[in-house]
Write a structure and sequence with these properties.
Blueprint: E1 20-21, E2 25-26, E3 30-32, E4 39-41, E5 47-55, E6 58-65, E7 73-76, E8 88-91, E9 97-101, E10 106-110, E11 120-123, E12 129-132, E13 138-141, E14 149-150, E15 155-157, E16 160-165, E17 173-180, E18 186-191, E19 198-204, E20 211-216, E21 222-226, E22 231-236, E23 245-251, E24 257-263, E25 277-282, H1 286-289, E26 304-307, E27 313-316, E28 321-323, E29 333-335, E30 352-358, E31 360-361, E32 366-370, H2 375-384, E33 390-393, E34 399-402, E35 410-411, E36 418-424, H3 443-454, H4 459-490, E37 499-500, H5 503-509, E38 516-519, E39 523-532, E40 535-544, H6 549-562, E41 573-579, E42 582-588, H7 595-600, H8 608-628, E43 632-634, E44 643-645, E45 651-653, E46 660-662, H9 693-708, H10 725-734, H11 739-742, H12 746-750, H13 752-765, H14 776-784
Parallel strand pairs: 1-4, 26-35, 37-41
Antiparallel strand pairs: 2-11, 3-8, 4-5, 5-6, 6-7, 8-9, 9-10, 11-12, 12-13, 14-23, 15-20, 16-17, 17-18, 18-19, 20-21, 21-22, 23-24, 24-25, 26-27, 28-29, 30-36, 31-35, 32-34, 33-34, 33-36, 38-39, 39-40, 40-42, 41-42, 43-46, 44-45
Helix pairs in contact: 3-4, 8-9, 8-14, 9-13, 10-13
Length: about 800
C-alpha cells in the first residue's frame, strides 16, 4: 500500500529489545504491557511508541506526544480491543510486527500487509512509526492507517478516514467520521453507533471529482489539493511553524475537526501553557450543522446542543429530563416523569404543564402542524394530545407538534420561536441539567405543604397561617412581576441566553469593586469570581463611571449588540445588572489582558506566529460582525485596547459600547463621530455615510501595529518619517524597504514573504477612499494567501 519513500537518515544504532529512545528497533525487539512503561522513542524524544494503560487492566498500543504533561495520544493499534497486562508487541525476525495477548493465546493486531524484507523499525520525529528495509524503503507506516489524528507532513489520501474517539477518556471508535471519498469529496459524517455505518453528512468540502489529497504541511497549513496540486479548499489557513509548535488535526469525540497547537518553548513571560489551544475548527457551529433523518443528532435523543463560550458544543437536557448515561454526555436524555396516558377515561391533562424554552428546536421530529394559531391554542392542543411531547410555536404563528424521541435538538440565537416542553406537574424528577431559560416557582408546592399542615391545626391558627402564607405568596408574585416588567422595559429586545444579576451579587463577586483590570471613557472593569455549583469562575464586570443619558445609551447598545453575537473571536457577554441606577455588564474573564499590553508593554517583540494568529482571529471576528450576523454590526472602535487575549492567547474583540447596528436592508448610516483618535477612518470627519469600511480602516492600523510592534503614532522618534506608522509603512513598501519595518524580529525575517503580504493588506485597509478598502471577507482571503494581493496605491491619494 505504501509507496517507496527515501527517509531522512535514521540512526543505525541497535536498540535494546526492551526498548529505549532514539535508535532503530532491531528484529526480535519487543515491548510488554506492564508497569515498567518501556517505550520506543523518536530521536528527539518528542514522540513515544508503546503501551498506555487507559483503564484498569486495559492497555492501548499507541503513539503519543511524550514531552508534555498530557502525553496526548495520536495513534493506536487496538482502540476497540484493549489488551491485558503481559501482552506484547514484537518485531519478529521474519519481519512480522504483531500484538499478542498471551493470556488469551491470540493475535490482537498486526501491521499489514506482512512483508518480507523488513530489516528494522523506527519511531520518527514526525510522529510516524515505520517498518523499513535495509535500503530505508518504507514497507509499512502508521501514517497510512490514522485513527483520529493527522500530524504535519502526514498526507491523507482518497479512501482514507478518521474516526472520532468515543469520549475524552475512551479511545474506542465513536460517533463521527472524516472521509476523503474516492470521488474527491472530503466529508464529515455521523456514524450509526455502535455499528459503524455512516448516517449523514454534516460538512463537505464540495469538491466531488476534484479532491485528491489532504495536505498538512510543516508550516501548519491544512488544505485539500487536486491531482495536479491545485489548492481546492483550506481547512486551516492560520499557519504555525512545526519548528515552534507541536501540532495535530484531530476529529474530536464531539464531532468537531480541530487544529491544535502547543508551543515548544516558553513565551515572553517565561511560562508555557499547560494545554493545547485551538488554532482552527470546523464546522463553525456543530449544533446547527447536524440535522439527520436517523439518529439523535449532535447530542443524542431528547437532548439539546448549545455552542458554549469556548465555541465547543455542550449537551444539556430539557426540564424534566436527565442524561441517559451520566458518563456519556452524547447518550441523549431520558424522561423523568410518567408519560401522559392515552386512555380517554383517565383525563389526566390537569397533571401536565409546559416548560417554556425560547430559541430551542428539535428539527425533523414533528408529526403535525397548524397555523396561523395563537400560542394558547398551541399549548392546549399539545396538552390534549397524549402523543405530543413538545410543541414549537413560531413567530409566524405556526404550531409544530413533536413526539418522542426528539432528535437534532439545538439551542441557538438564530432559532426563532420557542419550545413548549410538556412536563408532569408535582412529579419528583431527577434532572441533571437545569433549564437555562426559567426559574421554577415553588409557590404551588408551598401552598400544598401548608394545606397539609393546616389540616392538623386549630381553625383560628389555620386561618391566621393561611392568611400569612397567601399574603407573602402574592407579595412575592407582585415583586417578581414588577421586576420582570422593569427588565423588559429597560433591556433592548433581542437579548437571549444571558443572566440577570443583582447588584449586591456583583458587588460581593468583585469584593466591593476592588480589583480594577481596565478603564475606558465611560466605565471601569473589575475582576470578579462567581460560583457555579462547586466550580468558581472568573468574570470581568464593567461598571459605568456615572449614569447619564449617554451612559445609559452605551449600556443599552452594548447589551443589544453583543447579545446577538456568538463567535469564538468575540468576548462573550455572560449577563447584566439593571437595578435602579446600577447598570453593569458581566463578561468572560480574559486572563492575558489586552492586545495593547501584549504589544506595547513587552520588552521584546512578542512571538511572530502568535501575532499572526491574533491578526487572523481579529479579522475573523470582524468578518462575523459584518457579514454573518442576522443584523450587521459596525464596531466603530477597533483598537488594540479592545482586542483581549484569553488563557491561550486567542484574540477576542470586546467593547461594543459604540457599536452601530444595521438592518438587513441597510448598508450605511449617518451618525456622530465615534471611535479613538488614530484608528478613526477619515469619512467620520467628512460628513460621509458610515459603513462597515470604518472598521476595515481601524483593522488596517491595528494590523500594522501587530506587524511592527509599535504604536501608530510616535511623535518622539528620531526620524520624522516614522512618526505616523501608516505613512512610514507605505514609504517602506513603495521603496522596497519592507525589511526596515521588521526591526530585529528574526522569526518575522524568516517569514518575510508573508510579512510583506500582510503589510500590503494593511495598506489596502487604510485607504482614505472607503470604496478602495476591501470588505473583511476579502481581507481574510488576502491574509490567507488564497487570493492575490495587488499592489496598493498611496492611501492618501483620495480626493473629495
Amino acid at each position: 500500500m505504501a509507496a517507496v519513500i527515501i527517509l531522512l537518515p535514521i540512526s543505525a544504532t541497535a536498540q535494546s529489545p526492551r526498548g529505549g529512545g532514539g535508535g532503530n528497533i532491531t528484529l526480535g525487539s519487543s515491548l510488554v504491557a506492564d508497569s515498567s512503561n518501556s517505550t520506543w522513542k523518536s530521536p528527539s524524544g518528542e514522540f513515544a511508541f508503546g503501551f498506555r494503560q487507559v483503564s484498569p487492566g486495559g492497555y492501548l498500543l499507541a503513539i503519543w506526544f511524550d514531552e508534555m504533561p498530557e502525553r496526548t495520544i495520536i495513534w493506536s493499534a487496538n482502540r476497540n480491543n484493549l489488551v491485558q497486562q503481559g501482552s506484547t508487541i514484537q518485531l519478529f525476525s521474519d519481519g512480522r510486527f504483531e500484538l499478542n495477548d498471551p493470556t488469551a493465546g491470540r493475535r490482537i493486531w498486526a501491521a499489514s500487509p506482512a512483508t518480507s524484507g523488513v530489516a528494522y523499525a523506527a519511531m520518527l520525529d514526525s510522529g510516524d512509526f515505520v517498518l523499513a528495509a535495509n535500503s530505508s524503503a518504507v514497507m509499512w507506516r502508521s501514517f497510512d492507517e490514522p485513527t483520529d489524528t493527522l500530524l504535519p507532513s502526514q498526507i491523507f489520501n482518497q479512501d482514507s478516514n478518521l474516526i472520532a474517539a468515543f469520549s475524552d477518556t475512551n479511545h474506542s471508535s465513536g460517533r463521527f467520521q472524516l472521509e476523503l471519498q474516492t470521488d474527491g469529496n472530503l466529508v464529515l459524517y455521523t456514524r450509526n453507533f455502535p455499528m459503524g455505518d455512516i448516517i449523514s453528512a454534516y460538512w463537505s468540502s464540495q469538491t466531488p471529482g476534484d479532491g485528491f489529497q489532504l495536505i498538512f504541511n510543516q508550516s501548519g497549513y491544512i488544505y485539500l489539493t487536486a491531482r495536479n496540486g491545485t489548492m481546492l479548499n483550506t481547512l486551516s489557513s492560520n499557519g504555525a511553524s512545526a519548528s515552534l509548535f507541536h501540532q495535530r488535526l484531530t476529529l474530536d469525540y464531539d464531532g468537531v475537526l480541530r487544529h491544535y497547537v502547543y508551543p515548544k518553548s516558553a513565551n515572553s513571560t517565561g511560562t508555557r501553557p499547560m494545554a493545547w489551544s485551538v488554532n482552527e475548527f470546523l464546522p463553525s457551529n456543530l449544533c446547527l450543522s447536524i440535522r439527520q433523518d436517523r439518529g439523535g443528532g449532535a447530542c443524542g435523543f431528547n437532548s439539546l446542543c448549545s455552542l458554549g463560550t469556548d465555541q465547543r458544543p455542550k449537551c444539556i437536557c430539557p426540564t424534566g429530563y436527565s442524561l441517559l448515561d451520566p458518563n456519556d454526555r452524547l447518550s441523549g436524555c431520558k424522561q423523568d416523569f410518567v408519560s401522559q396516558s392515552c386512555n380517554q377515561e383517565s383525563n389526566d391533562t390537569d397533571h401536565y404543564s409546559f416548560s417554556d424554552m425560547p430559541r430551542v428546536n428539535w428539527p425533523l421530529s414533528d408529526y403535525a402542524s397548524f397555523g396561523p394559531v395563537s400560542e394558547d391554542w398551541c399549548r392546549q392542543d399539545c396538552l390534549n394530545d397524549c402523543f405530543c411531547s413538545v410543541a414549537i410555536y413560531g413567530s409566524n404563528g405556526v404550531c409544530w407538534k413533536k413526539r418522542s424521541p426528539l432528535s437534532n435538538g439545538v439551542i441557538d440565537p438564530s432559532v426563532g420561536g420557542k419550545a413548549l416542553v410538556k412536563i408532569r406537574k408535582n412529579d419528583t424528577t431527577t434532572t441533571t441539567a437545569e433549564n437555562p431559560f426559567e426559574r421554577k416557582s415553588s409557590n404551588r408546592s408551598a401552598l400544598i405543604v401548608t394545606g397539609s399542615v393546616l389540616l392538623g391545626s386549630s381553625v383560628f391558627l389555620n386561618l391566621l397561617l393561611l392568611s400569612s402564607v397567601l399574603f407573602f405568596v402574592f407579595r412575592f408574585k407582585g415583586r417578581k412581576s414588577k421586576t420582570a416588567i422593569r427588565a423588559h422595559n429597560t433591556v433592548p429586545p433581542g437579548v437571549v441566553s444571558i443572566r440577570s444579576f443583582g447588584f449586591d451579587e456583583l458587588k460581593e463577586a468583585t469584593n466591593g469593586f476592588n480589583e480594577e483590570i481596565g478603564s475606558g471613557a465611560w466605565s471601569t472593569v473589575y475582576k470578579g469570581t462567581l460560583k457555579e455549583g462547586e466550580n468558581v469562575i472568573f468574570v470581568a464586570v464593567k461598571k459605568p463611571h456615572k449614569i447619564a443619558e449617554e451612559a445609559d445609551q452605551e449600556f443599552k447598545t452594548e447589551v443589544s449588540s453583543i447579545s446577538r453575537t456568538n463567535h469564538k473571536n468575540l468576548v462573550q457577554l455572560l449577563g447584566y445588572c439593571d437595578e435602579g441606577q446600577n447598570r453593569l455588564l458581566v463578561y468572560e474573564y480574559m486572563p492575558n489582558g489586552s492586545l495593547a499590553e501584549f504589544l506595547f508593554e513587552n520588552p521584546s517583540p512578542p512571538n511572530w506566529y502568535r501575532r499572526v494568529q491574533i491578526a487572523f482571529a481579529t479579522a475573523r471576528g470582524l468578518c462575523y460582525l459584518h457579514e454573518e450576523c442576522t443584523m450587521q454590526i459596525i464596531h466603530c472602535d477597533i483598537k488594540p485596547q479592545n482586542v483581549l487575549l484569553d488563557g491561550s492567547h486567542v484574540a477576542k474583540i470586546s467593547d461594543f459600547g459604540l457599536a452601530k447596528l444595521l438592518r438587513a436592508d441597510q448598508t450605511r448610516t449617518n451618525t456622530g463621530i465615534r471611535g479613538t483618535r488614530g484608528y478613526v477612518a477619515p469619512e467620520w470627519f467628512r460628513n460621509m455615510p458610515i459603513t462597515a469600511k470604518v472598521d476595515v480602516y481601524s483593522y488596517g492600523i491595528l494590523l500594522l501595529e501587530l506587524l511592527c510592534c509599535r504604536r501608530n503614532f510616535l511623535p518622539d522618534v528620531e526620524d520624522e518619517n516614522e512618526v505616523v506608522l501608516a505613512d512610514w509603512a507605505y514609504d517602506c513598501y513603495r521603496g522596497g524597504a519592507i525589511r526596515s519595518l521588521v526591526a530585529d524580529d528574526e522569526v518575522a525575517v524568516d517569514d518575510l514573504k508573508r510579512f510583506e503580504r500582510f503589510v500590503m493588506v494593511a495598506i489596502w485597509c487604510v485607504q482614505e477612499d472607503p470604496a478602495l478598502r476591501p470588505h473583511m471577507k476579502r481581507v481574510m482571503h488576502m491574509l490567507e494567501g488564497s487570493v492575490q494581493v495587488p499592489a496598493p496605491p498611496d492611501p492618501t491619494s483620495f480626493v473629495t
